[in-house]
Amino acid sequence: MSEQTHRTPTRRDLARHTGDIRAYGGVRAVVLDDGVERGIRVLEFSTGGGLYFEVLVDRAMDIGVAEFDGVSVGWRSRTGFRHPGLHEYADEEGLSWLRSMSGLVVTGGLDHTLFGGDVDATHYRYPPKQTVRHGLHGRVANIPARLTGYGEQWVSDDRCVLWAEGEVVQATNFGEHLVLRRRIEADLGGTEIRLTDRVTNAGFDPTPHMFLYHVNVGWPFLDEGTRFVADVEETVWQTESVDEQGVDHRTFHAPLPGFVEQVYEHRLRADEKGRHRVGLVNDVRAMAFELDVDASAFPCFFQWLNLREGGWAVGLEPSTHHVAGDAAARADGSMIWLEHGEERRYESVFRFGRTGR
């Protein structure tokens, strides 16, 4: 097979060979129709460069299935991509988020991340609401988006961008009114996903803001011997299970019976462009996955190991706040408070690649 065969076709090339760009790659809207996933709107992205992924419109436009060269990279957990109408936010002492945790990207926020509990709500000036109770990683991941557009756009004769945009509103009366505007892009023929998020306080009360991406990688890309690669300056915190189990967090073990999750907070060294870049490498498959985020927007980073049989996964988690969470951020002054119209912007890249054997 010649090298020419692998070149991304130009706009003229495609027009000469087909009347439908999706013969090579594109974006298609579908609706899932069975089990707990029934009714979820999905956008299927196929770049033609080996990358395929699904945007879950009714799950905050998070990224569910993600495959590269036919190999599943995004974690497929036992929960499936559960319809948000089934979500029970306050159930199981706030841990019900775990009943809908699956896919490459599950977003945490918009006013809370990490473990839950009661925090002060008197800034909303509603006497019956002195506190608010949060669950694990907040509410946003189970809120449907308003889809504002998607498709294929030629930005030059030799570059076409596959894109989708939507708006997720997290709001209540006498409480927060936060809006997440999300844009997802991938180039035709490309091997990366570009995610741009803007979070705005549309309300008139000062509102806390916390944000996190739970980026989950699973089998078969994740395999015994897959390596974690990052410029770690210092590991500033880890769960007790690390010392108890002694399982390496840099080169991964095969699934283990009864494994207790291990979580680390690493302080990363930013590159010359002010970015944090972390990745996973599977040498046997000669494949790599890299997460590239703005270090100033996401100064904190967690690594999650779930090496238990039946749920094998590794999580890469860029975060606005340290692992101690909401109450600690309020106490030490690190909580982000958004005034009316104030916005935070997050620009991240997910790269899929082939390595030399």
UniProtKB/TrEMBL annotation:
It comes from the Bacteria. It comes from Micromonospora vulcania. This is Aldose 1-epimerase family protein. InterPro entries: DUF4432 (IPR027839), GH-type_carb-bd (IPR014718).
